Amino acid sequence: MLKTLSAFIIGLIFGTGIILSGMANPAKVLNFFDVYGTWDPSLMFVMGGALVVTTIGYRLVFQMNHPLLESGFSLPARKDIDGKLILGAATFGIGWGLSGFCPGGLIPALGLGSIEPLYAAAGIITGILAFRLVTQSRLNQPAT
User: Fold this and answer.
1) Please, are residues 32 and 47 in contact by the beta-carbon 8 Å criterion?
2) Are 16 and 26 in contact (CB under 8 A)?
3) How far is CA 37 from the centre of its chain?
4) Which of 77, 86, 119, 141 is most open to solvent, judged by the fewest CB atoms within 10 Å of its CB?
5) Dihedral through CA 27, CA 109, CA 97, CA 76, nearest 10?
6) pTM
7) Alpha helices in the chain (DSSP H)
8) Which positions ≥6 away from 115 have C-beta within 8 Å?
9) SS (HEC) of 50-74
């Protein structure tokens, strides 16, 4: 129960920050990419602030023996950069650049009563399902 409550509070703080910073507005995000037009540097400041908070947070947390609500840290074992990572990052970037929504900004935007976040959510869900379908079909193929 405590883990669920903490996740809810953290999500609420994150979503509030997204809304207050304007990052739930896809036009504001897309204007960051429009360097020669209506460029808006605010996304850079939001990301810079997030980087500072994250850097401090990681330094503090990794000084602890274990997380507050877990018995140990769960860190990825792989550190290499492979084709799947590059393809996933490129797909994410293209989707973000075309729609103005990343998943972090999309969730709070769904509550604003606009139709655009629904289209973006449908695209993200379609991408997730397509990935699972391709991955599953590869796992089910007989070895040659």
Assistant:
1) no
2) no
3) 26
4) 77
5) 150
6) 0.74
7) 2-21, 26-33, 42-61, 83-99, 103-110, 116-139
8) none
9) HHHHHHHHHHHHCCCCCCCCCCCCC
* CA-only gyration radius of the chain, Å: 18
Question: Residue type at 127?
Answer: G
Distance CA 88, CA 124 (A): 12
User: Is residue 73 within 8 Å of residue 66, measured between CB atoms?
Assistant: yes
User: Are 2 and 69 in contact, with CB atoms under 8 Å apart?
Assistant: yes
Task: Report the 10 Å Cβ neighbour count for 107.
Answer: 17
Instruction: Copy the structure tokens of residue 50.
Output: 């997030």
Q: Is 42 helix (H, G, I), strand (E, B) or coil?
A: helix
- The amino acid that residue 15 corresponds to is G
Task: Write the pLDDT tens digit of every residue in 46-69.
Answer: 999 999 999 999 999 999 999 889
Asked if 14 contacts 104 with a C-beta cutoff of 8 angstroms, the reply is yes
pLDDT tens by residue, 63-72: 999 988 989 9
